[in-house]
Structure formats: structure tokens, C-alpha cells
Amino acid sequence: MFNGNIMASDVLLVKTILVVTSTICSDGYQARTMNQINRRRIDEIEFPRLLGDRLCLDFANSVESPLEEPQEFLTDFEALARWGRHVGLLDDGQVVAGVRAERAQPDLAARLYADALDLRTSIQHAFVAIAEDGEVGDDDLAGIQQAYLQGLQQCQLLLDSGRAQWAWACSGDMSAVEYVLWRVAQSAADLLTDGDLARVKTCGCGWLFYDTSRNGSRRWCSMEGCGTQAKMRRYTAKRRAARA
Ligand SMILES: [Zn+2]
Fold first, then answer.
1. What digits encode the pLDDT tens for the residues 122-145?
2. Residue 221's closest CA among 208, 230, 234, 231?
3. How far is the CA of 61 from the centre of ligand 1 (A)?
4. Which residue from 30, 120, 159, 208 puts its CA 20 to 30 A from 71's CA?
5. What's the gap in Å between 172 CA and the centre of ligand 1?
6. 6: CA distance to ligand 1 center in Å?
7. C-alpha dihedral, 176 to 182 to 183 to 185, nearest 10°
8. CA distances from 63 to 15, 37, 74, 149, 179 (A)
9. Domains of the chain (ranges, CATH numbers)
10. CA of 221 to the centre of ligand 1 (A)
């Protein structure tokens, strides 16, 4: 737990994370270089592509084909830690520390994993409602708020090049995975408070994305995947109609 006194080693950790924050996640969330890789193999886990354009939406998309044949990628605590690395929030050492912490404190890890799935459900419900012109449920809003405020309690306001930023200052065993959840909750809170919500959309496959196209016309999570499939379906239907 962060107790107000940051040790020298913690400051190092904080600085490292600040650098990660400013290079990867300035302006919300930038994972384009990784998005362009079809599927990225990380050890034994193949994670889905990062097409949401916001960290919270990629977290929501950690279930593939949610509407038809859901395939879970956050299968356990270790997968959650590895997903943190997949999106560029953690390095190898932090993943290893997280896995070691899980072995030392399985109950705590199980609770954190359950919290992660609850947060994902809140994010999925909230942004699907927004994309479909529905109303965000109080429970979902409260779930995001709770995760965000919980993480904020572990942060410290630090000056970096003359500007203050919230820096992760927790050094507990589970710190790395807690950090991932906080960043996801922060991304969701930022999108809810600051984002252009008309650009939050759902693809036909059920995935969420933030449309950053100039004219706001993006319809698919990926043009070469869902977009092409939809085109082929339209083409087949047309040919069938012409033959009839
Ligand atoms: Zn799709």
C-alpha cells in the first residue's frame, strides 16, 4: 500500500511508468503499431488485436466474438498480467513479479482477477449502451468510478518537466496488475468525461471501438476482417437475388 513515503526504488518505478505513460498513452491510448500486427504471440497466449483505439475498449474486447461464440482471453490472473504487457503497460519483469505474487497470495490474486472481470463487464455495458443510444446503468458507472478511485488512492501527484501528473506510487506485490486495472479504469473515466461519445461504436462482431476517422464513418473493428466479411455477405446476397 502506498503510505505517503516513497522509497528511492519506488520513485524509480514511478519514473519508469511516467515514461511509459507519456510515450505510449499520451492522448488517451495509442497502440497503432501493435494494431497493425495481425496477431501477436506472447509466450503461450495469443491475444486478440488491439483495435479499440482506447485502452478501456481494448480491455472490453478481450473476449473475441462476444455475441456468437465468446472466446475468453483473460482466462486467469496470469493472463491478465500478460495482457498488461500486450498493451504496453508492463514489461517482462513486472509480469514475472505479478505471477510470483499470485503464487504467494492466491486469495488476493483471485480477488483482483474477479475485480478485473467486474470492471470489464461495467465497461462493456456502459459503452455498448452509449454506442446504441442507450442509457448507461448506474451500476456500470459506479463500477468504473470505484475502480478509478481505488487506483487513484495509490497515486501521487508528481512534477515532471514542470507539469504535475498522477504517478503510480504503489509498490505492493500485486502492484503491476493493480496498475493495469487503474489505467483501464482511468481510460474509461476519461472517455466518459472527455471523449466524443458519438464516436464510440460497436462492430457487427460485438467489439467496441473509438472512431478516429476524419469523417466519423468507420463501421468495423477491422476493414480487412469484419469489413470484408460484410462486403462478401452483401455480394453473395446480391448474386442470389439476381439469380432468383
Ligand atoms: Zn468486428
1. 999 999 999 998 999 999 999 999
2. 208
3. 10
4. 30
5. 38
6. 44
7. 150
8. 32, 18, 8, 25, 21
9. 9-243 (1.10.3300.10)
10. 4
